[in-house]
């Protein structure tokens, strides 16, 4: 089910006309759907059944305060990777006691901040990090709840830049090393061993790698229990893929059920860290065609959105569907490269797309709710796009388009 649909030949986001939103707020423009975010979140939450669990939404996918607030109102937990993300969660009304803190490079001040806010758990990614958490916790007179992120060495079958669970990736510790690190953690005065965590990559479209990883993790859980280290939760990470093109990833419900069924008979709670599966298809990026241009035999649609707004196509050769906001029957379709104004050959949003368009038309880049705005930048001194949330027939500006002045805020010229 999509949150945007054509009515006659016009695209609507929930009950809001995309053309009207673009006219009012300008382009490029991110539009998200509250109902879709909620529906996707509930799919994870409900599939876990009666087992105690937390859906810890991965904030990096989309960290707009309104997005976080929608989830906070549902009772969501959050997976964060920086002090900044924790600050955002708290600012949006999120509950610190439902926050897990991932990431390979936590600084001491970030650990201290998270301890002061009493987060649920640190997902520890190395022995050196465990030592640092112990030291900071001791200094603050606090006990730090931890789980160890293990790297189960399974091939997630995804793009190499977003695969994280292989031996050669920087994330987590190997299962072999985990035993010794758990033993050390159990001895530490200011560490409380809570759980285990693994996250093998992003945009996975098959269930099997998740289940293979879980098998390896469960073996470790059982062996640790024999050594007297009993874990109270398993964090299965995020990574469930979405349909960008013709992929057929499992539905969150099916995925979560498959995970939950592996844990049957075990007295252990469950944490999910979905990002993309909740947000990607809850958002679109709307952009206007500035010019149509033909070089030799190649047609270009030069649009006002660019790699600084949505970097996924440039960075991962990611394919996202591009559709006209108003369909036109009287314009001859052509094959276009959809490119932005940024001075890079790699600045494209899509290549070789058949579209019936004219200058001034609006295009929607689908599946842009995750890793869209959060990965945007001011490259080429381009103010970042505005963000809108639609809720039925209502729409709200949840982030204003950046002003020109904001481009140099905090910069100083020499005296
Ligand atoms: C530790 C961790 N958890 C959760 C996520 C969210 O992943 P996804 O957006 O693929 O669900 C990521 C990103 O890949 C991650 O690194
Ligand atoms: N940013 C990536 C996903 C990385 C996930 C973060 N660990 C994407 O857009 O697909």
From TrEMBL:
Residues with the N6-(pyridoxal phosphate)lysine modification: 60
EC number per UniProt: 4.1.1.20
SUPFAM superfamilies reported in the protein's UniProt record: Alanine racemase C-terminal domain-like, PLP-binding barrel
PROSITE patterns attached to this UniProt entry: ODR_DC_2_1 (PS00878), ODR_DC_2_2 (PS00879)
Catalysed reactions, as listed in the record: meso-2,6-diaminopimelate + H(+) = L-lysine + CO2
Pfam families noted in UniProt: Orn_Arg_deC_N (PF02784)
Top enzyme category: lyase
Cofactor needs: pyridoxal 5'-phosphate
Binding sites annotated in the UniProt record for pyridoxal 5'-phosphate: 239, 273-276, 371
Domain of life: Bacteria
Entries under InterPro entries matching the protein: Ala_racemase/Decarboxylase_C, DAP_deCOOHase_LysA, De-COase2_CS, De-COase2_N, De-COase2_pyr-phos_BS, Orn/DAP/Arg_de-COase, PLP-binding_barrel
UniProt cross-references to CDD domains, sorted A to Z: PLPDE_III_DapDC (cd06828)
Pathway given in the UniProt record: Amino-acid biosynthesis; L-lysine biosynthesis via DAP pathway; L-lysine from DL-2,6-diaminopimelate: step 1/1
Binding residues for substrate: 276, 312, 316, 344, 371
Family according to the record: Belongs to the Orn/Lys/Arg decarboxylase class-II family. LysA subfamily.
Entry function: Specifically catalyzes the decarboxylation of meso-diaminopimelate (meso-DAP) to L-lysine.
Subunit field text: Homodimer.
Name this polypeptide is given: Diaminopimelate decarboxylase
Organism: Thalassotalea castellviae
Gene: lysA
